[in-house]
Write a structure and sequence with these properties.
With 183 residues, the chain is α+β, with helices and mostly antiparallel strands. It has a domain of 118 residues. 45% of the residues lie in helices and 26% in strands. It has a six-stranded mixed β-sheet. A two-stranded antiparallel sheet has the order 1-2. The longest helix has 63 residues. It is rod-shaped, with a radius of gyration of 31 Å. About 7% of the residues have low confidence.
Length: 183
């Protein structure tokens, strides 16, 4: 009888130890899953941060190369001719964006300088597509308006490596076409 009690106690003890091992294993698996999820989230955050950094670098480079020679007085332009407000990568190569043209460059000669500047910046890109606006208000208030009806839209730069279409069209403040420059 005493043997039987000892056997039963040993069985209970074995079951308790088995349950404890299962709890420890379950906890370990749960901790591994949590760790894996955290690592995945960190990688995802890292990717987003990398994209943001690349976007900022692109905008800084685009803005820094935005000036050129001011043909009016043949001196270096003291300010950047445009500010990149939005930028995106074109899937089969190149970049696009929305830019605000500095007031100093909103006449015909200034817009031609901006076109030439964008041409230089994008010369090695397969594609490029930039929309130029006279001010932030024009860009924001007319964001969903077709470009043809947007009174603040003053420049359209398009480069398509597939078709060879490559030009820059400049407009006055009433969106009347002034000139199209073919490259």
């Amino acid at each position: 009888m005493e043997n039987q009690q000892q056997n039963e106690e040993l069985k209970k003890q074995a079951e308790i130890e088995k349950e404890e091992r299962m709890r420890v294993e379950t906890r370990a698996k749960a901790e591994e899953e949590i760790k894996a999820r955290k690592e995945k989230e960190e990688r995802k955050k890292g990717g987003i941060v990398l994209l943001v950094i690349l976007g900022i670098i692109f905008i800084v480079v685009l803005v820094s190369l935005g000036g050129g020679k001011d043909e009016k007085n043949n001196s270096e332009v003291s300010e950047v001719g445009y500010e990149a407000v939005e930028a995106w990568k074109i899937p089969n190569g190149g970049y696009g964006g929305r830019i605000i043209i500095s007031a100093k460059f909103q006449d015909k000669d200034g817009l031609k300088l901006i076109c030439d500047s964008i041409e230089r910046v994008t010369k090695n890109d397969r594609n490029a597509f930039f929309l130029g606006f006279k001010d932030m208000e024009s860009l924001l208030t007319n964001k969903n308006v077709p470009v043809k009806n947007n009174k603040g839209f003053i420049l359209n730069f398009e480069k398509n490596g597939n078709t060879g279409y490559h030009n820059c069209t400049i407009y006055d403040n009433d969106h009347t076409e002034i000139e199209t420059i073919e490259y």
